[in-house]
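INTERNAL AUDIT FORM
Audit reference: QA-55
Scope: verify that the stored structure record matches its stored sequence.
Auditor: D.O.
Record contents follow.
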Amino acid sequence: DVRKMHFLLRGRAFAVFPGGFGTFHEFFELLTLIQTGKVRPLPVLLFGRAFWSRVVNFEGLVEEGVIAPHDPDIFHWCEDAEEAWAFVQRFYEEHPAPQREQSGPPE
């Protein structure tokens, strides 16, 4: 939907915390858009490895051949804000963000 596309176009990183169906929907849609090249790669921070590893078997998805072995590299496991921020900083040192063009006067 339009809301998600604006969110993805403006975001610089995405933090995903343990949640239910809505969280899963947003998270997997984000992964799919990055995986298929529809949006640029962004830092996707997956908080709470114990939760996510228990509820989603990413290794099993690779073993079943439904995702590529490198697809889990789209996201980064983290447990706290300091770890997440350090990853975002490293990400943008290695992948500088494209300059945004201003299409009109500032709001």
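Auditor finding: record pair retrieved intact. The helical segments are 2-10, 21-35, 49-55, 58-63, 81-94.
Action required: none
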